Automatic annotation (TrEMBL):
Organism per entry: Australozyma saopauloensis
A Pfam match: Peptidase_S9
Stretches assigned to the Dipeptidylpeptidase IV N-terminal domain: 157-525
Source taxonomy: Eukaryota, Fungi, Dikarya, Ascomycota, Saccharomycotina
Protein known as: Dipeptidyl aminopeptidase B
Annotated localization: Vacuole membrane
Length: 836
């Protein structure tokens, strides 16, 4: 397939988009990397509310904000950002997964349309037939037995005859929730409860044949037969310790990033699910102090939370078969993994690779040994290991990118198979396993770059994928011929679908003929529907022209993504290449000297420096405090292919020693910026959230030359033995196996903080992810060593996002005002720990 000229698309659509080279993480990225510990973009944390008003004069920042008065344009403020003024608009669509779409993909999708009266309509449309519209439901609420219920969302059945509606939605942990569920009959518009009107359930899942719905209530699995209306309960042991079909806390957070672990077979007559037994997992109590109804005594919530070296949940894979006839019963059996050499297993991926076989991946606790099983749907057949692997570099990442490729002799596929992401020379690449029993991958791609996701057009034997071929800070779509392996030698030819210095995301229709293409930057984002068979744009959904206009009306910071060479301490004088972004304030004058703020995250496999559009908190700091903001993706982060000699060791070098290389690279980068003529080397600060909060503190701890004068750490891990087992052991093994590593990876030298000019720590007391315990243990160490040159702010009952009771407004207010004071040298004038 030839490359699609994106600029030609824009011209033909007669849309003019002004260009800007702006850095940031977008609000809509369809790609997920690595673990989901710790939030890697502050954009996702913000509850956009009120403005912070700063009235104190600051004479030390280039003439008391006089740079802002020299322009007639609007200024970027915290209020502007909070309101989402520059937040791109994207349409969220639900591709219809009808069985026939694999062979006859009409590009049908469900979209929610909102009228001026705030009345929602859930409408099915077709890309092939632009005139086709089918309204499933119109309205923002409905009444049942005289009670009004507000619609939270709607999920259509594959055959579009019914839909599941959620109301009374309540957020759980990061991905989980509970709600009342209802079944809508589209033709009659009749709405009835899925279960009971007084009992909230966790989720509901349509069978591919639209005739059954599986759901979880009270940690047990139920199945509703829509033809008869009967509900069958399949499990009866659900409890506070046992979870059926839904993940416990650690699997929800660190493995599946989802509220469900239940998968239907292609023909919808079976499904498989995970069962977790957390009885041996220690309880972690979280007190909530300011909840309604708990005025005198705090509400105590007990969370099953395994920490490194402690018991993990015992996880089992269960296969269930629906009754084959009326009057017969469900059949279920637990998969026997007794042949495994892994004694404490994690089940990290499950995939049906035919209607009678399930593929399951399991790893050990350290995530460096992986076994792949092929499991029959019938209990009397043998479970077999098809692959047993040892990580060649650091660890196996958790991903769910395997795709079933069914046989179809008329299309040249003579056996079932599947496509998976497999490590090749330290980088993830596409591999074809044919048949599923095969242990030998047929690699479809290779090179010092990463494949991130893949999709298959089964009708045309085309594999689409996203990758970092052109640059690690870009994302593009590509295609290859799946059957190349049968008629030519070597790897298939890679055909680019998108081009330019860009970052693209998107999703494919169920037959992979159509692509919802999100052009995410660095220019103002666009959203289009593309017909990949005809190589054309069918429809432009969003142009965000309002943002392009706004950008001409504001004085905005300028961002530049680049590659620099660093020579970190301990690297024997050898340089490494890293991706960076530098954001310069409006009206930047290279003859003046500016303060610098480093914004960091740095977790294993993460990435902050990208060619995406954003005007985010870093831009606010640059504009509001007339400062330079820098982000550096150092060693340990993902997708860096700039150092040919290091290869995958750029990421995997942090194995067993978190917090060693990452701060050295930030310090080396700070020294580089301190040497620049426009930088005031006495006013360099660093800040981060979550892993970024840990990296901020670790950098201040290791910075013996005091390149950094200030730091702001939000919700930090301070001792890795206090974080969850699955994430931590993937990079550090257990404390029993790596005792010295856990000591050096923690914030373990409180005396070193006495030389920092000033630093700030903030944490939510209700943080279920990085427990408040982390900050309290560090404060205790500071007290024992008389470290007093810091400020501390606690947010009652706030979780990891610090959003409870106006917390999100206050946390950013504090950061801005604290940095303003730091850059004004206020803290250097005080001889007392108290700054009042």
């Amino acid at each position: 397939m030839t490359s699609i000229d994106i600029e030609r698309w824009t011209h033909n659509d007669k849309k003019t988009i002004s260009r800007s080279f702006l850095y940031g993480l977008t609000l809509l990225v369809g790609l997920i990397w690595g673990s989901v510990l710790l939030v890697s973009s502050v954009n996702t944390l913000v509850s956009l509310k009120d403005e912070l008003v700063i009235t104190t004069a600051v004479n030390h920042i280039n003439d008391d904000y006089s740079w802002q008065k020299s322009s007639s344009k609007h200024q970027l403020t915290l209020e502007t950002w909070r309101k989402g003024t520059f937040r791109p608009t994207f349409q969220l669509i639900q591709w219809i997964q009808s069985p026939e779409s694999v062979h006859n993909d009409q590009g049908t999708y469900l979209v929610k349309e909102t009228s001026d009266s705030d009345k929602n309509a859930y409408v099915v449309k077709s890309i092939l037939d632009d005139k086709y519209t089918h309204t499933l439901f119109s309205g923002s609420s409905f009444k049942y037995h005289g009670v009004e219920y507000k619609v939270h969302d709607l999920q259509a059945s594959p055959d579009l005859t019914r839909a599941v509606i959620r109301t009374d939605w309540v957020h759980g942990w990061r991905h989980s929730s509970s709600a009342l569920f209802w079944i809508l009959d589209v033709e009659s518009q009749q709405i009835v409860p899925l279960f009971n009107t007084n009992d909230k359930i966790s989720f509901a899942s349509w069978s591919p044949t639209s005739d059954h719905i599986a759901f979880v209530y009270d940690n047990n699995i139920f199945v509703k037969d829509l033809a008869s209306g009967t509900i069958s309960q399949l499990t009866f042991d659900g409890s506070a310790d046992v979870f059926n079909g839904k993940p416990d806390w650690v699997y929800e957070e660190e493995v599946y990033a989802s509220d469900r672990v239940l998968w239907w077979s292609p023909e919808g007559d079976k499904f498989t699910f995970l069962k977790f037994n957390d009885a041996s997992v220690p309880d972690f109590p979280i007190p909530y102090y300011v909840q309604d109804g708990h005025d005198e005594y705090p509400e105590m919530v007990s969370l099953k939370y395994p920490k490194p070296g402690y018991s993990n949940p015992i996880v089992e894979l269960v296969v269930a078969q629906l009754p084959k006839s009326s009057g017969s019963a469900f059949k279920m059996y637990n998969v026997d993994f007794s042949s495994s050499e892994i004694k404490e297993r994690l089940i990290t991926e499950v995939l049906w690779v035919s209607n009678t076989q399930v593929l399951a991946k399991i790893t050990n606790r350290a995530s460096d040994v992986q076994e792949v099983y092929l499991i029959p749907s019938e209990q009397d057949q043998q479970v077999s290991i098809v692959r047993s692997l040892k990580a060649s570099s650091g660890w196996f990442e958790v991903n769910a990118n395997a795709m079933f490729v069914p046989k179809n002799a008329s299309l040249g596929r003579y056996a079932d198979g599947y496509i998976d992401l497999v490590e090749k020379d330290g980088f993830n690449h596409l591999a074809y396993f044919l048949p599923p029993e095969s242990s030998n991958p047929i690699f479809l791609t290779g090179g010092q770059w990463e494949v991130l996701s893949n999709y298959v057009d089964l009708q045309n034997n085309i594999v689409y994928f996203t990758a970092t071929i052109s640059a690690s800070v870009e994302r593009h779509f590509y295609s290859i011929d799946l059957l190349h392996i049968f008629h030519e030698q070597g790897l298939p030819k890679i055909n680019p679908i998108t081009n330019g210095t860009k970052w693209y995301g998107g999703s494919f229709s169920s037959g992979s003929r159509f692509l919802l293409l999100n052009d995410l930057g660095p220019d103002v984002p666009l959203q289009r529907l593309v017909d990949l068979h005809e190589n054309r744009v069918v429809k432009t959904l969003e142009t965000n022209e309002h943002i392009a206009k706004l950008m001409t009306e504001y004085d905005l910071p300028k961002a530049n993504v680049s590659v620099i060479d660093l020579i970190p301490d301990g690297n024997k004088g050898k340089s490494i290449k890293v991706n960076t972004v530098e954001i310069l304030p409006p009206n930047f004058d290279p003859s003046k000297r500016y303060p610098v703020l480093f914004y960091v995250y740095g977790g294993p496999g993460s990435q902050l420096v990208t060619q995406t559009f954003a005007i985010d908190f870093s831009h606010v700091i640059a504009a509001h405090l007339n400062s330079v903001v820098v982000t550096v993706d150092g060693r340990g982060t993902g997708f860096n292919n700039l150092n040919l000699d290091l290869g995958s060791q750029f990421k995997f070098c942090v194995r067993d020693k978190l917090g060693h290389f990452e701060p050295l690279d930030q310090i080396a980068a700070a020294k580089e910026w301190a040497s620049r003529t426009y930088v005031d080397e006495t006013r360099i600060a660093i800040w981060g959230w979550s892993y970024g909060g840990f990296l901020t503190l670790k950098t201040l701890e290791k910075d013996k030359d005091r390149v950094f004068s200030y730091g702001v750490s939000v919700a930090p891990v301070t001792q890795w033995k206090l974080y969850d087992s699955i994430y931590t052991e993937r990079y550090m093994r257990t404390p029993q196996e790596n005792p010295e590593g856990y000591v050096t990876a923690s914030i373990s030298d409180p005396e070193s903080f006495k030389d920092v000019t000033r630093f700030l720590i903030m944490h939510g007391s209700g943080d279920d992810n990085v427990h408040f315990q982390n900050s309290l243990r560090l404060l205790d160490e500071f007290n024992l060593h008389s470290v007093e040159n810091f400020d501390f702010m606690v947010f009652p009952d706030s979780d990891h996002s610090i959003s409870y009771h106006n917390g999100n407004k206050v946390v950013y207010d504090r950061i801005v005002d604290w940095l303003r004071r730091a850059f004004a040298n206020d803290f250097t004038r005080s001889n007392s720990p108290s700054l009042n």
